[in-house]
Task: inverse folding
């Protein structure tokens, strides 16, 4: 393998976005992905900065063919009272209108026409400098290695050893699933003392459902937790729960884990996306930050001087990621307040909190000076 080739470890959203950005800059790239396929039909909410990043990848028009645009957000109490709402069309503008898209569609979009070698399924067994040993025993030396392999990153372990994976302040785990749309026409969350249930339309017939605890509480891996926690919530929440009562195979239970690292790079090896900075999805920034990371890293690699890319990447990206992490922590702490106080507080500062969180992300600061 040419020592001018970039190895991208991970074929998810971060890895495919990076591979695509590198090819657009005529840099040779190879992808290694450990899984044999995608993660099914679950969906991802894309705020405006994620939509803008897709456009920077040259995929804006094609993205518009998938999912459904989200014009409005509503934050409601467990009894259905509207606490505050946000006009997302007005906030983001027509060019960066948020939308909810199936993950499988995003992976198809990112991989379509991507002319790169993909090793799959294969794991990185060891990483010695820039020499990579794959799970089949094959060894290759690359010019640069990017770890885009998620929360359980093997590249991160190779660079920094065992690193701390912490549970979210908001909730230890979540349940996610797709369900028939019970009549919800916008991003809507109902939140009470026991948990929060979010419904986002993906199209006219289905919604993506995300349910978690609040106050850092546990989320039982038995689906009965859903009915126990949300059985008294408004009709739309009860309807989606009833739709999966006899379909436990449609439910995905997973921990909500965060990664906070003092460094994302070592020499010509860099972590991007969740491998570097996984954050609870309070502000739906997982995919957004991952694609922004990919654009920045590709630009820096195209400029040359690969020995300094890692440090420059961190210098450029750290403030934006830190802003999202801090906003996530603030919201998680607010969610842990007594319900009467939290609901009253949200009616007063909810809209301002949304604007203060997302306003800096409207600035395409993920671009490098050479963009």
Result:
């Amino acid at each position: 393998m040419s020592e001018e080739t970039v190895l991208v470890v991970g074929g998810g959203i971060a890895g495919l976005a990076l591979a695509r950005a590198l090819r657009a800059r005529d840099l040779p790239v190879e992808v290694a992905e450990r899984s044999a396929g995608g993660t099914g039909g679950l969906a991802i909410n894309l705020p405006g900065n994620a939509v803008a990043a897709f456009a920077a990848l040259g995929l804006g028009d094609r993205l518009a063919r998938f999912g459904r645009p989200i014009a409005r957000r509503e934050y409601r109490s467990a009894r259905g009272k509207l606490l505050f709402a946000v006009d997302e069309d007005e906030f983001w503008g027509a060019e960066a209108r948020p939308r909810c898209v199936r993950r499988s569609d995003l992976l198809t979009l990112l991989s379509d026409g991507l002319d790169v070698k993909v090793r799959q399924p294969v794991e990185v067994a060891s990483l010695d400098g820039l020499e990579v040993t794959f799970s089949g025993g094959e060894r290759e030396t690359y010019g640069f290695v990017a770890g885009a392999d998620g929360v359980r990153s093997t590249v991160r372990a190779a660079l920094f050893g065992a690193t701390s994976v912490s549970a979210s302040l908001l909730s230890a785990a979540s349940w996610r699933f797709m369900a028939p749309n019970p009549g919800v026409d916008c991003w809507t969350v109902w939140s009470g003392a026991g948990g929060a249930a979010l419904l986002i339309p993906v199209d006219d017939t289905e919604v993506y459902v995300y349910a978690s605890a609040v106050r850092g509480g546990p989320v039982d891996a038995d689906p009965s937790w859903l009915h126990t926690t949300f059985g008294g919530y408004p009709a739309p929440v009860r309807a989606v729960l009833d739709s999966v009562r006899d379909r436990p195979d449609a439910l995905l239970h997973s921990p909500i884990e965060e990664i906070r690292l003092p460094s994302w790079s070592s020499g010509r090896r860099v972590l991007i996306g969740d491998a570097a900075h996984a954050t609870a999805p309070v502000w739906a920034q997982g995919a957004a930050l991952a694609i922004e990371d990919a654009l920045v890293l590709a630009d820096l690699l195209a400029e040359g001087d690969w020995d300094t890319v890692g440090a420059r990447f961190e210098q450029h990206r750290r403030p934006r990621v830190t802003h999202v992490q801090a906003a996530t922590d603030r919201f998680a702490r607010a969610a842990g307040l007594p319900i009467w106080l939290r609901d009253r507080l949200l009616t007063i500062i909810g809209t301002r909190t949304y604007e203060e969180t997302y306003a800096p992300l409207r600035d395409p600061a993920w671009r490098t000076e050479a963009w």
In short: The mean pLDDT is 93.
